Amino acid sequence: MSDNKFTVDGSSAIVTGASSGIGRRIAEGFAAQGVDTTICSREQDNVDPVAEEINDGDAPGRVLPIECDVRDRDSVEAMVETTVEEFGGLDVLVNNAGAVFKCDFNDLSENGWKTIVDINLHGVFNCTHAAREALQDGGGSVVNISSVRSQEAAPHETHYGAAKAGVNNLTKSLASEWASDGVRVNCVAPGFIATPGAVTAGDTDPADIDRSEVDRKTGTTAEIADVVEFLASPAASFIDGEILTVRGVPPHSEDPK
Ligand SMILES: NC(=O)c1ccc[n+]([C@@H]2O[C@H](COP(=O)([O-])OP(=O)(O)OC[C@H]3O[C@@H](n4cnc5c(N)ncnc54)[C@H](OP(=O)(O)O)[C@@H]3O)[C@@H](O)[C@H]2O)c1
Predict the structure, then answer these.
(1) If you measure from the C-alpha of residue 20 to the centroid of ligand 1, how many angstroms do you get, rounded to a whole number?
(2) CA of 97 to the centre of ligand 1 (A)
(3) What is the pLDDT confidence band of residue 235, given thresholds at 50, 70 and 90?
(4) Strand 63-67 to strand 36-41: parallel, antiparallel, or no bridges (unpaired)?
(5) Is residue 160 annotated as part of the catalytic site, yes or no?
(6) Strand, coil or helix: what is 223?
(7) How far does CA 234 lie from the centroid of its chain?
């Protein structure tokens, strides 16, 4: 155990959607701090190499890769159960799995709408609800990942904006309900981040991009992971039910340097 309140060490976590991008970087950060971390995505073949790479390094935390679609309640429950069995409990849940496609509202099918709401909002419900007893057992913490699109117009992403706005409200409402259980629920709303899910700088691994390589309107995966680590750490013990916007510069800023 470290005396540093900004570390999440000595605990266990689940990070959903950690085969790439922001989730992968959060898992790397947790493992580096000594947090035993379950990572999931829809394909075992996508999470296995991530776990192997982290476990082969010198991070003190262990990473457990599990195939789990956050839309599927049975697989979510199995993931939570395995995590508790393997790591002896669950302290931190990061609801990061998400997806989007651009589409004019006029052309958006019911299936397209449902798919995006299912992954981005229902998935957060599934994971948080399945993990409730484990989290309440140890006074844990939830960090949801929404988007700046949740708080402003999201043209051509109406399904995504609506789903992420739901994540924000779920964060606040659940934080109120769970305050008496000692479980904090917060949310990070990123601006544009260089990830495989967005546009990346050439062939560079997004996890390796640093601030000097991107403009002030483009964030790195580390700049989101750092905030997630802070919210999950004892340093944020007095922060509950908050949506923390992480976007580099305020909206409509001109030519930031
Ligand atoms: N990048 C940005 O600019 C940005 C901005 C604001 C918010 N965000 C949010 O940040 C989060 C991470 O985004 P990212 O940019 O890092 O995207 P990414 O690189 O595409 O990563 C998305 C992750 O989610 C997983 N995933 C997708 N659907 C899933 C499902 N149904 N069940 C389980 N895992 C699933 C993917 O794994 P598989 O494909 O292997 O299943 C992948 O690991 C998302 O919630 C996104 O909405 C991103």
Answers:
(1) 7
(2) 5
(3) very high
(4) parallel
(5) yes
(6) helix
(7) 18
Query: Domain locations in the chain?
Result: 12-246
Residues lining ligand 1, CB < 6 A? 16-23, 40-43, 46, 69-71, 96-99, 119, 123, 145, 147, 190, 192-193, 195-198
Query: When comparing pLDDT for 82 and 207, which is higher?
Result: 82
Predicted pLDDT at 13:
98
DSSP letter for 34, please: T
| Res 37 pLDDT > 70 | yes
Sheet holding 141-145, edge to edge: 63-67, 36-41, 12-16, 92-95, 141-145, 184-190, 243-246
Give me the catalytic one of 160, 195, 233, 236: 160
Q: How confident is the model at residue 239 (pLDDT cuts 50, 70, 90)?
A: very high
Q: How far apart are CA 162 and CA 150, in angstroms?
A: 7
Q: Is the pLDDT of residue 187 over 90?
A: yes
Question: Would you state the pLDDT for residue 185?
Answer: 98
Report the alpha-carbon distance of residue 18 to residue 155 in Å, rounded.
27
| Ligand 1 atom having least distance to the Cα of 194 | 1
**Alpha-carbon distances of 222 from 23, 71, 82, 208, rounded to whole Å:** 10, 27, 28, 9
pLDDT per residue over 46-83, tens digit each? 999 999 999 999 999 999 999 999 999 999 999 999 99
State how far the Cα of 147 lies from the Cα of 207, in Å rounded to an integer.
19
The pLDDT, as a whole number, for residue 257 is: 64
What topology does CATH give the domain 12-246?
Answer: Rossmann fold (3.40.50)
Which of 15, 41, 114, 150, when mutated, tests ligand 1's pocket best, judged by the most ligand atoms within 8 Å of its CB? Answer: 41
Ligand 1 centroid to residue 22 C-alpha, Å = 7
